[in-house]
Amino acid sequence: MFFIKPTKKTFFLFIFLLACFVLSLIMSTGWFNVFAIETVQNITGKTLRNPYKWSCAVYNCVHIPLFISIVLLFLKFTSSGNSISSAKAKAYKNFADFFIQKRNIIFTAFLVLFFFIAYYKIINADFYYMDDMARNMGADDSGWMAYGRYISEFGSVLVHGSFPLTDIGPLSQIISIVIFAFTVFTLSYVICGNEIRMLPTLGLSLIFISPFFSQCFSYRYDNPYMTLSILFAILPFLFCEDKKSFIYTSIIFLILSCMSYQAGTSVYIVVCMYLVLKKIINGKKENLASFIIISVISFALALVIYQLLFNCSGNPKFPKPENMGLASTGFSVSRVIPNLKIYTSFVLENFGGYIFKLCFIITLLLFVVLNIVKSKVSKLASFFVLAIFIVAGFILSLGAYLVFEASMIAPRVLMGFNCFAALIVFDSLLMISEKVQKRRKLLFIPAVLCLYLSVAFLYTYGNCLTQQKDYADFRMHALIYDLSEYVSTDSGEIKVTLNGSAGYCKSYDNARRQYPIIDSLIMRFPGSNMWDKDCAYKFNFIFDDAYLSEVPSDFMKLKDSKLHAIYASPDRQIFYVELRE
User: Fold this and answer.
1) Which of 138, 169, 170, 141 is nearest to 153 (CA)?
2) Separation of alpha carbons 347 and 357, rounded Å
């Protein structure tokens, strides 16, 4: 890497980037961190509710211009950066020229329509999912910055056009659907080049119509950025032909993926493994070792840079609160086996219904058999490589969550597995469409059924959301009606604790039996969760949580019904409600 002397045209850009670098470096020091927090507190006249979290945010945010200035200085003013820029521009142009062809634009539009149809019932359910409730009420802290998701934090302000964020659903979900289509097209291009086939490409849609990804889509505010994390993890493979460009883009886009939703980085691992598998099966072993080494190094460097620059601890002056965060991001090798057991159990139990599982197993067997039959290396070697891909691909599809000390296994973090399953369906359809004789084309049926049954699940889940929303509204209506008997107009602010649970709507018990994942997807509210107050706000019933773990001895019972029991303090300012299923 040799430094290139700025020209007259680039001199001011060089000075500006250098100034940004130096200023960001100064601002990333401890004294500025304390100064920024204390200045905000002095101006507002209030102590920040969580100064430690804001201290983390200051450290991380000042590293953003630092990182951008380093990247631009490298690209503009080094010979290696110039060569990478040229290679990138060429690869971008080849992809863009192919994408804008009329056939491909129509195909992408078809994918948009397909995803819209697939997710229609979830969109139509108009459901406020978990964090959506607080954000809909104008929460001034979206929470994304605390988890290092800066694209989500800042991008949402542009997408929603306001801060605090207003509800623009289902526009945010429609934006996600457009990203779905572009991501699927891009991945198909990465694998097939200019010979994209419609049916196999449709198989890749399983990345987004998987039962696990349905949770990501359920979030009205989060979903575009969860989707972007997958796109960012795929984009580096457009530059595989040039090693320097691939390393550079892998690091940059994986960092962007972390800034959107960290679980998306696992898609990079799965795609790498699939490309290696196909190179071996097709007898293309040249540069294979270097590709594997470069991919591993790039992935590791991206996570290290992200951890150092954008996942910083707060200033020691501000003590860290207990229970900050949903999962520990500390690494522990001893957690691999326990996390893998939880992961395997969760996937086996929740990945579709029984018929879907059967179709996927048949598709997996076809994937193995067809690759062995058409392999250009020995059958035994092919079987061995395919076995490694299936086992290692499944394990590593969990990504970094595999080694987290307190890993959170939830549907929304299984993006790598979604990609793993989608690539198996895609490859089976590709092999059938290219290699199999016409009379055997019916072999595509199990793979196509996997797609159909995934869409069928999305409709079932969407209907369950609607029924649960109606049931929860009924329970809240009944509770508010009963509480209103004991709250006078001059009571002022009251405090209420909701304990127990209203449970699930019984009308979709059959759906829960067929699809166990529904228990993981649908919220049981109101009762015993952080969104109790938000549920009541919908009906203009405003209260603070009293945070009572049990009924105090001096509380009197005011109401006892099949739906709930209501207790109140002597002055009727504090209420304790025991919900019943």
Assistant:
1) 141
2) 11
Question: Which two structure tokens, joined as six digits, stand for 305?
Answer: 């840079």
Q: Are 282 and 273 in contact (CB under 8 A)?
A: no
φ, ψ for residue 78, nearest 5 deg:
-135, 150
- Between CA 558 and CA 285 the distance in angstroms is 77
Mapping DSSP to helix (H, G, I), strand (E, B) and coil, where does residue 236 land? Answer: helix
DSSP of 210-275: STTHHHHHH-TTTHHHHHHHHHHHHGGGGGTTSHHHHHHHHHHHHHHHHHH-GGGGHHHHHHHHHH
Query: How many helical (H) and strand (E) elements, i.e. helices and strands, does the chain have?
Result: 24, 5
* Pairwise CA distance, residues 356 & 315, whole Å: 50
3-state secondary structure of 556: strand
- Give 10-residue mean pLDDT values along the chain (581 residues): 75 89 87 83 75 81 89 88 87 91 94 96 88 73 73 86 83 95 96 89 95 92 93 94 90 93 92 94 86 93 88 77 55 80 90 91 93 88 92 90 76 93 94 69 86 95 91 86 78 78 84 89 68 72 78 86 87 85 80
- Closest alpha carbon to 482 in 500, 506, 504, 498: 498
- The answer to whether 306 touches 368, Cβ cutoff 8 Å, is no
Nearest one of 463, 469, 455 to 510, comparing CA atoms: 463
Measured CA distances, 141 to 138, 237, 284, 546 (Å):
9, 35, 51, 22
The 3-state DSSP class for residue 544 equals: strand
- Distances from the Cα of 29 to the Cαs of 18, 22, 32, 48, in angstroms? 17, 11, 6, 20
Chain center to CA of 537: 28
Alpha-carbon gap, residue 160 to 166, rounded angstroms: 6
**Angle, CA of 289, 292 and 295, to the nearest 5°:** 145
Cis peptide bond N-terminal to 236, omega within 30: no
Residue at token pair 């996570």: 303
Nearest to 139 by CA among 41, 261, 49, 33: 49
The region that residue 193 occupies, defined by phi over 0 for left and psi between -120 and 50 for alpha, beta otherwise, is left
Amino acid letter at 445? Answer: I
Is 495 strand, coil or helix?
strand
Pairwise CA distance, residues 550 & 530, whole Å = 17
User: Tokens in use for 540?
Assistant: 């203009």
DSSP 8-state assignment for residue 486: T
From CA 426, how far away is CA 420, in angstroms rounded? 10
CB 255 within 8 A of CB 302: yes
What strands lie across the sheet with 544-545, from one edge to the other?
Answer: 544-545, 495-500, 574-579, 564-568, 556-560
Q: pTM for the complete prediction?
A: 0.91
